[in-house]
Amino acid sequence: MVLRSDWSQRNCSMARGLDILGDPWSMLVLREVFFGNGRFDAMKSRLAVADSVLTRRLAGLVESGLLGKKVYDDGGRPRQEYVLTPKGEDALPVLNAVVMWAEKHLPAPSDQAHMYVIHSGCGQRTSSADTCTGCGERLTAANTSWHSLTRTDAPVQLATAA
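RE: above sequence
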Protein backbone atom coordinates (compact mmCIF):
# COMPACT_ATOMS: atom_id res chain seq x y z
CA MET A 1 0.00 0.00 0.00
CA VAL A 2 1.64 3.22 -1.12
CA LEU A 3 0.75 6.18 1.09
CA ARG A 4 3.95 8.23 1.18
CA SER A 5 6.99 6.40 -0.11
CA ASP A 6 6.96 2.80 -1.27
CA TRP A 7 9.05 0.84 1.22
CA SER A 8 7.69 -2.57 0.21
CA GLN A 9 10.95 -3.67 -1.44
CA ARG A 10 13.37 -2.38 1.19
CA ASN A 11 15.97 -4.73 2.67
CA CYS A 12 14.79 -3.86 6.19
CA SER A 13 11.89 -5.86 7.67
CA MET A 14 10.82 -2.90 9.78
CA ALA A 15 10.62 -0.65 6.71
CA ARG A 16 8.53 -3.25 4.83
CA GLY A 17 6.20 -3.61 7.84
CA LEU A 18 5.85 0.13 8.19
CA ASP A 19 4.90 0.32 4.52
CA ILE A 20 1.59 -1.26 5.57
CA LEU A 21 1.25 -0.65 9.32
CA GLY A 22 2.99 2.73 9.60
CA ASP A 23 0.01 4.87 8.65
CA PRO A 24 -2.08 6.09 11.62
CA TRP A 25 -5.38 5.83 9.71
CA SER A 26 -4.62 2.22 8.75
CA MET A 27 -3.89 1.34 12.38
CA LEU A 28 -7.12 3.01 13.51
CA VAL A 29 -9.09 1.14 10.82
CA LEU A 30 -7.59 -2.13 12.10
CA ARG A 31 -8.53 -1.11 15.64
CA GLU A 32 -12.14 -0.67 14.54
CA VAL A 33 -12.24 -4.04 12.81
CA PHE A 34 -10.72 -5.74 15.88
CA PHE A 35 -13.50 -4.08 17.89
CA GLY A 36 -16.00 -5.73 15.51
CA ASN A 37 -16.82 -2.46 13.76
CA GLY A 38 -16.28 -3.45 10.10
CA ARG A 39 -19.01 -1.54 8.31
CA PHE A 40 -17.97 1.54 6.35
CA ASP A 41 -20.52 3.98 7.80
CA ALA A 42 -19.88 2.83 11.37
CA MET A 43 -16.12 3.19 10.93
CA LYS A 44 -16.53 6.58 9.30
CA SER A 45 -18.63 7.78 12.21
CA ARG A 46 -16.36 6.36 14.90
CA LEU A 47 -13.16 7.65 13.28
CA ALA A 48 -14.58 11.00 12.10
CA VAL A 49 -12.71 10.49 8.84
CA ALA A 50 -13.41 11.63 5.29
CA ASP A 51 -14.88 9.08 2.87
CA SER A 52 -11.86 9.35 0.58
CA VAL A 53 -9.36 8.71 3.38
CA LEU A 54 -11.28 5.71 4.71
CA THR A 55 -11.84 4.31 1.23
CA ARG A 56 -8.10 4.48 0.43
CA ARG A 57 -7.07 2.88 3.72
CA LEU A 58 -9.62 0.07 3.42
CA ALA A 59 -8.57 -0.62 -0.17
CA GLY A 60 -4.91 -0.72 0.89
CA LEU A 61 -5.57 -3.06 3.80
CA VAL A 62 -7.58 -5.37 1.53
CA GLU A 63 -4.87 -5.23 -1.15
CA SER A 64 -2.23 -6.02 1.50
CA GLY A 65 -4.24 -9.01 2.68
CA LEU A 66 -4.97 -7.77 6.22
CA LEU A 67 -8.69 -7.34 5.62
CA GLY A 68 -11.25 -9.16 3.52
CA LYS A 69 -14.82 -8.32 2.59
CA LYS A 70 -17.97 -10.15 3.62
CA VAL A 71 -21.41 -9.52 2.16
CA TYR A 72 -24.28 -8.70 4.50
CA ASP A 73 -27.87 -7.66 3.93
CA ASP A 74 -29.09 -4.56 5.71
CA GLY A 75 -32.68 -5.09 4.58
CA GLY A 76 -32.08 -3.22 1.34
CA ARG A 77 -29.36 -3.95 -1.12
CA PRO A 78 -26.50 -6.30 -0.24
CA ARG A 79 -23.54 -4.49 1.29
CA GLN A 80 -20.01 -5.40 2.33
CA GLU A 81 -18.29 -5.23 5.67
CA TYR A 82 -14.61 -5.59 6.36
CA VAL A 83 -13.29 -8.54 8.33
CA LEU A 84 -9.87 -9.60 9.53
CA THR A 85 -7.87 -12.17 7.62
CA PRO A 86 -5.36 -14.40 9.41
CA LYS A 87 -2.64 -11.97 8.25
CA GLY A 88 -4.61 -9.07 9.75
CA GLU A 89 -5.20 -10.96 12.98
CA ASP A 90 -1.43 -11.48 13.24
CA ALA A 91 -1.06 -7.68 13.54
CA LEU A 92 -2.67 -7.79 17.00
CA PRO A 93 0.61 -7.65 18.98
CA VAL A 94 1.59 -4.51 17.04
CA LEU A 95 -1.65 -2.75 17.98
CA ASN A 96 -1.36 -3.99 21.57
CA ALA A 97 2.20 -2.64 21.76
CA VAL A 98 1.11 0.80 20.54
CA VAL A 99 -1.66 0.91 23.16
CA MET A 100 0.67 -0.15 25.96
CA TRP A 101 3.41 2.26 24.94
CA ALA A 102 0.93 5.16 24.82
CA GLU A 103 -0.57 4.24 28.20
CA LYS A 104 2.91 4.16 29.73
CA HIS A 105 4.46 7.24 28.12
CA LEU A 106 1.75 9.67 26.96
CA PRO A 107 -0.59 11.66 29.18
CA ALA A 108 -4.28 10.98 28.66
CA PRO A 109 -6.41 14.07 27.97
CA SER A 110 -9.09 12.79 30.39
CA ASP A 111 -9.77 10.04 32.92
CA GLN A 112 -11.82 8.22 30.26
CA ALA A 113 -9.11 8.34 27.57
CA HIS A 114 -7.53 4.99 28.44
CA MET A 115 -7.45 1.62 26.74
CA TYR A 116 -6.26 -1.61 28.28
CA VAL A 117 -5.42 -5.06 26.95
CA ILE A 118 -7.13 -7.83 28.90
CA HIS A 119 -6.43 -11.56 28.66
CA SER A 120 -9.92 -13.07 28.60
CA GLY A 121 -8.63 -16.43 29.80
CA CYS A 122 -7.58 -15.23 33.25
CA GLY A 123 -9.29 -11.82 33.23
CA GLN A 124 -6.07 -9.95 33.97
CA ARG A 125 -4.85 -6.75 32.39
CA THR A 126 -1.53 -7.43 30.72
CA SER A 127 1.54 -5.29 30.14
CA SER A 128 2.94 -7.45 27.35
CA ALA A 129 1.79 -7.16 23.74
CA ASP A 130 1.92 -10.87 22.97
CA THR A 131 1.81 -12.81 26.26
CA CYS A 132 -0.40 -12.43 29.32
CA THR A 133 1.74 -11.17 32.20
CA GLY A 134 -0.79 -12.69 34.62
CA CYS A 135 -0.75 -16.33 33.49
CA GLY A 136 1.81 -16.54 30.67
CA GLU A 137 -0.58 -17.61 27.91
CA ARG A 138 0.03 -16.31 24.38
CA LEU A 139 -2.39 -13.51 23.45
CA THR A 140 -4.54 -14.01 20.37
CA ALA A 141 -7.62 -12.20 19.11
CA ALA A 142 -9.69 -15.15 20.34
CA ASN A 143 -8.51 -14.76 23.95
CA THR A 144 -7.99 -11.00 24.18
CA SER A 145 -10.31 -8.12 25.01
CA TRP A 146 -9.70 -4.41 24.80
CA HIS A 147 -11.16 -2.12 27.40
CA SER A 148 -11.56 1.36 25.95
CA LEU A 149 -13.14 3.50 28.63
CA THR A 150 -14.49 5.91 26.00
CA ARG A 151 -16.42 3.04 24.34
CA THR A 152 -17.87 0.94 27.11
CA ASP A 153 -17.76 0.13 30.81
CA ALA A 154 -16.69 -3.45 30.11
CA PRO A 155 -13.92 -5.02 28.02
CA VAL A 156 -14.86 -5.94 24.44
CA GLN A 157 -13.88 -9.35 23.07
CA LEU A 158 -11.88 -8.86 19.88
CA ALA A 159 -13.02 -10.00 16.45
CA THR A 160 -11.09 -12.85 14.89
CA ALA A 161 -10.28 -13.73 11.30
CA ALA A 162 -13.33 -14.65 9.22
